[in-house]
Amino acid sequence: MKKTGGQILWECLLKQGVHTVFGYPGGAILPAYDAMTQYPIRHILVRHEQGATHMADGFARATGQVGVAIATSGPGATNMVTGIATAMLDSSPIVCITGQVGSKLIGSDAFQETDITGVTLPITKHNYLVTRADDVASTIREAFHVASSGRPGPVLVDITKDAQQSSAEFDWDGAAPRMRGYRPDYRPAQPDFEKAAALIREAKRPVILAGRGITLSGATDLVRQFAERTNTPIAMTLLGIGGIPANHPLNLGMMGMHGEAWVNTAIQEADLLLAFGMRFDDRVTGNLKTYAVNAKKIHVEIDPAEVNKNVKVDVALVGDLREVLADLLPLVPAGDHPEWSARIADLKGDSAVRDIQNLPDNGHLYAAHVINDLWRETSGEAVVVTDVGQHQMWEAQYYKHNAPRSLITSGGLGTMGFALPAAVGAKVARPDAEVWVVVGDGGFQMTMCELATIVQENIDVKIAIINNGYLGMVRQWQEFFYEKRYAATPLVNPNFQRLAEAFGVKAMTVSSRADVKPSVDAARQHKGPVLIDFQVEQEDSVYPMVPAGADLHAMIRRPSPIVETAAD
Length: 568
Ligand SMILES: Cc1cc2nc3c(=O)[nH]c(=O)nc-3n(C[C@H](O)[C@H](O)[C@H](O)COP(=O)(O)OP(=O)(O)OC[C@H]3O[C@@H](n4cnc5c(N)ncnc54)[C@H](O)[C@@H]3O)c2cc1C
Ligand SMILES: Cc1ncc(C[n+]2csc(CCOP(=O)(O)OP(=O)(O)O)c2C)c(N)n1
Ligand SMILES: [Mg+2]
Prior knowledge:
single chain; alpha/beta; Rossmann fold; 6-stranded parallel beta sheet; 23 helices; binds flavin-adenine dinucleotide; binds thiamine diphosphate; binds magnesium ion
């Protein structure tokens, strides 16, 4: 039966299992919106198209399923750019659908015409311009296949207005993806398994570097088994957090620029690094010349372009981590490294000292207190969506995540404004989960218009603004590296409580430690969205810190008053 391109779009989305899309209408996408009314699709009307992309991204990160965002041509499409780039850098599978001017008008600077496939070429895994209704089904199927297979990533499908309006035969089966040049199913060669197993057997000071790939591949159990069998400690990247429970005895915590001191020291002293689904980001390695110089390196990675990109490795096992580990595990004997374990225990010191819960209340409210109390009150079981800045790092340090996909954060692009919309996507994807937004006073103001979306759609997210009156992370760099010249970092903020109330969101303001717990409890008991403005110490800094490009072991340590380790 013939259907319009607009109808075929929704038919395909439903067949792909999509029930919710995040979007904003306009002229060039109107035929598709009109067709949408005939289908059982939940459309979440955002307030800015950037929000739609972050929502689709949050949806994808919370579940592993493809998230879908939709917008009109021109400004609608260009507003999506930041969200697409965010998804690209963190390998998040989203499909963005944009309307385009009529095919005959392309290239004429028509009203709201932007060459969005040109604009997004470097920030999409792949993108398409569809000019005929006949091509809608095959393109949508391909887009979902590309977004979700191999190394996931964003795909954009730009559909001209006439392709949405005209009719074509809808043939789902005939539209199955046929992509000769795209083969994401790599498998390592057998001799490489042998080489890796030999290095593992010989290692005396091994460390696993666990990244986002362990969750993307569904390999978290296998990584844990591998670690337990070989008694190998595990260091996590920011995006790996949650993949291995924080309370697992072999989980060391986060590595890198704001990682735990003992983790970075262990990496520098290691004789074998097992990089599982991580890409040696510069925030992870510091100075490459001095990075883990005594360690052999094994890299298990699905994308061949990542191998030997930043760090030269001794053995690369290119393939899906879960499949590779399933084959590698039987080749690896059970082992122990008593001296290494003792050294690590020594480095770590008494980690209970880091527990700031019992430090005396000196009248100052530190962000770390807020995060620590939030962790305790939610029993570590919330899905926390963070924005970018100091609060993001404190969340990573003080909220102990035990479940995969329970920390959602923009790592690679570091996109301020990500948290609030991404949390909407996460809550829509997992309505039964308790979802908290941890966001800075700066980043909140970048996408706070989505409070209106939250109210219109009754999205039950709880929002903790870590309000330090500064673009805190930049202020910290100015303090450390620019002699405290605070150029353009102090913020004059609105009254966040009254602002939230104006949107119709229940809100509180908290400025003392004693009020943190009761406010979190009140927020949890309230059905519906709640915002808490936590007015924290203004000039606190995130420690430890490896200055950009410095040696990983050259960390700036916290002078006082929150103690990090007994070894301080
Ligand atoms: C303010 C700020 C501070 C930061 N500080 C730190 C820090 O201190 N420490 C830190 O770790 N990060 C930090 N980051 C984040 C950092 O920039 C990177 O985003 C992060 O380190 C990347 O982690 P990753 O390599 O695990 O994830 P990704 O960048 O998502 O890479 C995952 C890798 O896994 C691969 N992969 C995907 N699927 C599979 C599969 N099925 N099988 C095998 N491989 C797969 C991918 O190809 C990719 O190479 C910071 C970010 C910000 C914004
Ligand atoms: C869109 C965007 N613009 C600028 C930056 C640079 N930047 C990184 S952290 C930061 C400060 C964030 O301030 P705030 O949201 O208040 O969080 P805080 O660091 O104070 O916790 C800035 C400006 C960014 N990451 N993203
Ligand atoms: Mg701030």
